[in-house]
Write a structure and sequence with these properties.
It is a single chain. This protein is an alpha+beta fold. It contains 22 helices and 36 strands. The longest helix has 23 residues. The radius of gyration is 30 Å and the shape is globular.
């Protein structure tokens, strides 16, 4: 083994030249004819040798009677090391066995063809289960990896399932002659479909670290993963399907034949382990489903999502843009700034109603602050640092440490609590350039960030208030949401009794809130439990924007304290608890979500283009300007079209620009002091509008704006 380790140590992870993927539709050269890589046979020989030994060991295991308990309480008899979950499924119904993706044995995911080892509780999961869906897409990633090895002759790196599908990071050899392009998608799909047609079984092999290094000695990426993630003297698993063998914990679907519809979606560049100091790789994305109807529906969904892409609408409506001289930082144009400011004003109004106090804190701090808060030790790579007078400073990526300084500036009494600090301060996070994506992943942003300082016995009521706050805001946008309570993780700080009490208070707050919620055991932050909130937009896509987190650690780190009830001058101080909360989250990201949710058809209260005044002839240009001025003074976003276009062209241009209302004015309207109104959301008024006196029209618009209705009708 020593020689293998020595060779692995010499393999650099940053010795490849960056390889950029060709853009979609580019005239890529045809793919060269790649020979079947020699490492496939090397890998297979080792696998066959070890797999045979494993099968012999299993064959010699004693067969004992076991009892398998199903979720409904019924039981089935079986034999240890012989009966599989698939056997149980077939015994229940052939249709269940056909739909079966994965099993759960005593709450642990389990291959359906892997023998049960003892009496157990058994669940049988199909594609509709979120856990099974992830397994299905993970197995599909292996099929994609098989196709990539055969097509490119590449070395595989990492191929996980993701929220919608899967991807594989690969290192394409120089012999291939070019980067990946759309021209490679059809050959990859053909190879994947061939593997699916062959119904290749997924075979699981428990393998030692030494044998792993021998099996993957040709692949420096796998060698690195093995050396860093598999402790010496231990074992892990690999899975085989057809010619592919990959380092993997599993589990997987029974065979590649379980995958019915398979598609390659896109490609991009990436870095090994997401580190820009490592090799530049190629990433290939895919999607799969257990029936072709779902694939058709998904492709239609992608078409609709492309139409709603916030980057496309942002350009068309001149809301924002990006520039290479400030990557990851949006330039909000006047119409985009209107939306930005309207959202912040909306939240400011809610802060006023709910007893929050807005503060303004510095953008830059000496790193001593971040060392005290713990962020520098764990987060410094994601921060922008700079040197000032030989001292290290950093731009803030979050507001909480600064708010702790504000709280601790003087002695505090329990009577001041809860104290709710809100801050729209500019934040900076050093996101990798390859991760930047429109407004959804940026380096410069603002949040509706707030921190609530309270006592332990105030946590429940403050949590209830935070939940009511987010329902108030999300219902205004028409969003539905789901809630999860994430509890104490394995690695945590603080006392278990404090955690238990906090989790109990959060659970009671959720129960009192009245909406369904789920328990998410062990997924809390190390410093306290949290409530995870996921919203869904008009296309049913899930986004996590809001956060409500309890924090016991920052008050300790900053020695925050309040004078307790009945305390003397020098004694009886209590440590407060901090609740981190945001509803919109990043304003930039929320604008991206809202743009796509409304498909650029903004509700009137949020719209950057509320009214367009269209004069019929030049005779009424002056009156049109008067109408504009009156609407402007009423606080509305209004413009006048005095271009040389025809009347119909002006109206059409205003419709395409998504103005909520179009006011056509002619001689009659001038004499009456009225406007002829066409409403975007009222089809009946588009052919011929209704004539409304100006005073009445202004009042109706103001009422509509105040109501924050999602439908712009008067």
């Amino acid at each position: 083994m020593a020689d293998i380790v020595e060779r692995a140590a010499k393999l650099s992870l940053n010795d490849q030249k960056p390889a950029k993927g060709n853009k979609k539709g580019s005239g890529a050269a045809p793919a060269p004819s790649m020979e079947r890589p020699e490492f496939i046979e090397h890998r297979n020989r080792i696998f066959d040798e070890l797999f045979q030994k494993q099968q012999e060991e299993i064959a010699n295991k004693p067969r004992e009677d076991i009892v398998i308990t199903l979720p409904d309480g019924s039981t089935r008899d079986g034999k240890s090391w012989e009966t599989t979950p698939m056997d149980i499924a077939n015994g229940i119904s052939k249709s269940l066995a056909k739909r079966l993706v994965i099993a759960k044995v005593d709450n642990v995911l389990w291959d359906t063809l892997r023998p049960l080892e003892a009496s157990c509780k058994l669940e049988l999961l199909d594609f509709e289960s979120e856990e099974a869906k992830m397994v299905y897409w993970h197995s599909s990633a292996h099929v994609l990896g098989e196709a990539c090895e055969l097509h490119f002759g590449c070395h595989l790196c990492n191929g996980p399932p993701i929220e919608n599908g899967f991807y594989y990071d690969i290192a394409v050899p120089e012999e291939f002659g070019r980067g990946i392009s759309q021209a490679d998608f059809a050959p990859l799909e053909a190879l994947a479909n061939k593997a699916i047609k062959e119904k290749q079984p997924f075979q699981r092999l428990v393998i030692s670290k030494e044998d792993l290094l021998r099996m993957f000695d040709y692949n420096k990426y796998k060698v690195h993963l093995i050396n860093t993630r598999v402790p010496d003297g231990t074992s892990t698993t690999v899975y085989r399907c057809g010619p592919l063998i990959d380092l993997c914990r599993g589990p997987h679907v029974p065979t590649t034949g379980s995958i019915t519809a398979f598609a390659v979606l896109k490609n991009s560049a990436s870095y090994f382990l997401g580190d820009a100091n490592n090799d530049s790789l190629q990433r290939v994305y895919g999607i799969s489903f257990p029936d072709k109807k779902k694939m058709t529906e998904y492709k239609k969904f992608l078409e609709e999502a492309a139409k709603r892409d916030h980057r496309k609408i942002g350009r068309e409506q001149e809301l924002f843009f990006f520039h290479e001289l400030s990557p990851g930082s949006a330039f909000f144009l006047p119409h985009g700034a209107r939306i930005y400011n309207t959202l912040m004003d909306f939240i400011r109004g809610k802060y006023w109603e709910r007893g929050f106090q807005e503060v303004v804190s510095p953008n830059m701090y000496n790193i001593k602050l971040w060392e005290q808060s713990g962020h520098w030790q764990n987060y410094q790579e994601d921060m922008f640092g700079l040197e000032v007078e030989k001292e290290k400073f950093a731009l803030k990526p979050m507001n909480c440490p600064g708010h702790c300084l504000m709280f601790g500036m003087r002695d505090r009494s329990y009577r001041e609590l809860p104290l709710r600090f809100a801050d729209f301060g500019v934040l900076h996070r050093n996101e990798a350039s390859g991760a930047l994506s429109g407004l959804t992943r940026v380096r410069r942003f603002q949040q509706d960030d707030a921190h609530i300082f309270c006592l332990q016995d105030q946590v429940k009521s403050e949590m209830q208030g935070a939940l009511d706050f987010l329902r108030d805001v999300y219902s205004t946008f028409g969003f539905t949401f789901a809630l999860k309570l994430s509890t104490r993780p394995d690695k945590y700080l603080g006392e278990i009794a404090v955690w238990d009490q906090a989790e109990k208070q959060l659970a009671e707050a959720l129960d009192g809130f009245g909406s369904p919620w789920e328990l998410n055991p062990g997924d809390g932050a190390f410093y306290g439990p949290k409530i995870d909130i996921t919203i869904r937009d008009a296309l049913g896509r899930a986004f996590q924007c809001a956060t409500i987190q309890l924090d016991f650690q920052l008050p300790e780190r900053f020695q925050l304290q309040v004078r307790a009830p009945g305390a003397s001058e020098d004694t009886e101080f209590q440590r407060p608890v901090i609740i981190h909360r945001a509803v919109l989250g990043s304003i930039e990201r929320m604008i991206a979500i809202l743009t796509e949710n409304f498909a650029g058809k903004w509700p009137m209260w949020l719209s950057p283009r509320q009214v367009m005044v269209v004069p019929v002839t030049s005779v009424v240009y002056e009156y049109a300007e008067q109408v504009k001025q009156q609407l402007h003074e009423a606080g509305l976003f209004v413009e006048v079209d005095v271009s040389a276009d025809t009347l119909n062209k002006k109206i059409r241009n205003a419709e395409l620009a998504q103005y909520n209302f179009i006011c056509v004015v002619g001689v009659q309207e001038k004499e009456e002091g009225s406007v002829n109104v066409r409403c975007r959301d009222d089809v009946g008024t588009k052919a011929k509008g209704q004539t409304i006196p100006m005073a009445t029209f202004i009042q109706q618009l103001q009422e509509l704006k105040s109501s924050k209705s999602l439908v712009s009708k008067i």
